Every structure is written in C-alpha cells, then in structure tokens.
From TrEMBL:
Gene3D superfamilies: 3.40.50.1100
Pathway(s) of this molecule: Amino-acid biosynthesis; L-tryptophan biosynthesis; L-tryptophan from chorismate: step 5/5
EC number: 4.2.1.20
Cofactor(s) demanded: pyridoxal 5'-phosphate
Organism in which the protein naturally occurs: Hydrogenophaga electricum
Domain of life: Bacteria
Protein's UniProt keywords contain Transferase: no
Catalysed conversion reaction: (1S,2R)-1-C-(indol-3-yl)glycerol 3-phosphate + L-serine = D-glyceraldehyde 3-phosphate + L-tryptophan + H2O
A matching Pfam family: PALP
Family recorded in the similarity comment: Belongs to the TrpB family.
Protein name, UniProt field: Tryptophan synthase beta chain
Record note on quaternary structure: Tetramer of two alpha and two beta chains.
Amino acid sequence: MTLQTKYLLDESQMPKFWYNIQADLPKALPAVLHPGTLQPIGPDDLAPLFPMELIMQEVSTEREIEIPEPVRDIYKLWRPAPLYRAHRLEKVLGTPAKIFYKYEGVSPAGSHKPNTAIPQAFYNQQAGVKRLTTETGAGQWGTSLSFAGSLFDLEVLVFQVRVSYDQKPYRRAVMETYGARCLPSPSNETQYGRSVLAQRPDHPGSLGIAISEAVELAVQRDDTKYALGSVLNHVLMHQTVIGLEAMEQMQMADAWPDVVIGCTGGGSNFAGIAFPFIGHALRGGKRSRILAAEPASCPSLTRGKYAYDFGDTGHMTPLTKMHTLGSTFTPPATHAGGLRYHGMAPLVSHCKDLGLIEAAAFSQKSCFEAGVTFARAEGIVPAPEANHAVKAAIEEALRCKREGKSETILFSLSGHGHFDMAAYQKYFSGDLADDAYDEKELAMALSGLPSVPEPA
Ligand SMILES: Cc1ncc(COP(=O)(O)O)c(C=O)c1O
C-alpha cells in the first residue's frame, strides 16, 4: 500500500474570504478601553496607529471578510500551504494516532507571518501611508513586514528585541535585503528606549518594550503607521487562511482532527489554525479539542491573570482584557523569542475564558528535544516557537499510545528554524538552560496591573 504524505490544494482552491470568529462567539469580546479615560474606545482613537480598513476589521462581526485580489495574488507565491501526514513521526513514536501538520514555513519569510503582513501593507498603501514601524521578537514578523513593504513600496522600520537581534544577525540581513531598517530594542532612537536603557544599559529587551518604541514613532508622523504581527483581532483573522485550507485538506485525507494544536506567543498562528475549527463546532459541526502550547518561561495562558492590561511596557496602547503576566514582566531570554510576550490575544483569552480552548506550558529543553525528534523523522527543522506545538502534538500522540486510541491530531508547524541554528547548537552542546521566570518579578508585574472597573 502506498501512503499519501502531502495534501495539496490548487491555487484556485485558496480561500477567498478570511473567517471572523467574532460572528460566532456565544458572548461578545470585552470592550477595548482608552488608557486615559478608561472608557470604551471608538475607531477614531485607533486612527493614528492603523488605517481605517484594518480598524473596521478589528471591530467587525461579519463572519466572512473578502480577501482583496492583490493580496490573494501575492499569497499565491506560497499558498495554499501543504498539509502533511507525519507517517514517519508516528512510526518513531509507535503511536496509533494519526498526526497531521500544516506547514507555514514555505512562505518567503519562513513562517505564517506574511499571511497578515501582506494585507496590512496593502491596506496601509491604499490609505496613502508611506512608512510602517513595528517590533519583532523572533525576527519572523520583522522579515515578513519588510518583505511586504518591498512589494507595496513602503518604508519599514523594525525594532528587534535585543536578545533576538544578538542571537540572529542574519534575520537583520534579510530585513535589510528587503530594504527595511532594523534596530535593536531598547534603542536610543526613542524617548522610551532611552529611558529603559538609562535604568538598565544591558536590558535584553522584550516585545512589550519594542512595541512601545514602534508606537512612539508611529504617532509622531502623519505618513507613518504602526503594524503589529500578532494579538489584534484583524491579525488573527488574516491567519485563518491556515485553518480554512487545513479543513479542505483534512477532508481530502478523509479525516477530521480530534485535537488541534498551535503554539502561542501573541496567539496568531494558533488562532489561524484553530478558529475555523472552533467556529465549525459553534455552528453545530463536530467539536475538536483545541490546545494552545506555550513556553513555561512566559506562561500567559496558564499562569497569567485574565484582566485589563496594556499591550506594551511603556503604556502607550489601549487597554484590552487578556491573559497577562503584567506589562512590566520581562521573560527570561529564551530562544523562542516569538513567544516572549507578557499578554495573549484578547480573542484567544476570551476563548479560554469561555472554555473553548485548553492550554499547556512546556519547558525550552523539552521543546528542543521534540523538535529534534521531529526533524529526524520528518526532515523539517522547526522554529523554536513551533517546537512547542511539536512537543504538545508528541505528548498527545504518546497519550493515544498509552490509551490505545487512534485519534487524529492536527498541528500548526508555524515556521522553520533555519535562522535559529545557534539555539540548536546550544541544545546539542548542553548549554541550553531551562530559564525559569522570576516568581517575585511576576508577582510584582501582576500587582501593577491597572485597576479598571468592569465595564457595563
Ligand atoms: C515561527 C513562529 N511561530 C510562532 C510565533 C508566535 O507568534 P503567534 O503566537 O502570533 O503565532 C512566532 C513569532 O514570532 C514565530 O516566529
């Protein structure tokens, strides 16, 4: 018997609409609040940061939003992305489970991030914007926005979290190849960056700090807007092309997932694969278990508080209700830079609060071990962030083995790790630490959460 390994869709089968989970949720998302007045904000409050088309997507409750044709044309450079059946991994694990993975590393940047970088650049260009500022943790998002900026003739300025800037010099080189400028954060370019450096000159940086720097510059100039690579509703919605394609491909494989898994930093690739399946169940279809895999060093979903908090460390963003470790929390300098964010997407947090998803935290070393097992079986070297999803999928497959169950597991392999080989080297030489976060720092960051009366 020959085994089918890849499930491929034709370009003509690529989704024409993004899926908006806000249409199907049993309870609406809590309001976003103005940081000064603590009152719900309106579209105009966000206008200095984002073009109106994206703001309207942020608050839309329409189930489907059409993907503009120029965006679909660019998506065709790598989409539809392949779905694989991990036959060899199943064999190595000796599991009766069927493991599928949706591989987003085929994009030019090497991850899922261009799925939202392209539409964000498109809508900004349409609105007459000339320059975009942003942050990047792993370097994947900065690369993706730089790529998108080059296609839409936009200047791009990226604040890369200091540890990641030092760990991955070639990410910066790729961003520069696309024509972007990349600075380590905290930087001397912004008032906020300078204030952080004054207190701690060797600060490793965090996504929360890099966001503050990018926002500070965006609001200073009319021709400049800010782009965020995760967390926001419209970003998560753009990523649903992952799950929508996966649904078609699972049907081609005559299978349906019992468990859907994604790693969670800000929540975008997880939402991308999971939200279409959650929506399917909310509309009366088969329910899958949905599992978020996060790092034990920055466990917002499993250890954070579901509360109103700032999206950034400098407190320039609106307040959203989310699972948070506190906006001043600086996670240890682990190698999964894309997962070092103090908060979680409000939509993912809301789904957790509603009991629609589960979450589990995994240590850095155990995730690298899982990534190496995966690479030796399937050939792809996953990004350190994606290793968290691999680890969770392996744990589920081993549970199936123990229980003698032949469940179907689907996970998002959000990116490759070709720029992360220094981290793999450290793992092989035994120098990779399981950095625990500082409990005292967490308690302090949580005690500093803004006090916000629950809106009516
Ligand atoms: C490959 C990869 N996976 C996952 C993430 C985490 O982001 P998100 O939770 O938004 O998918 C990142 C972030 O940079 C990433 O580069």
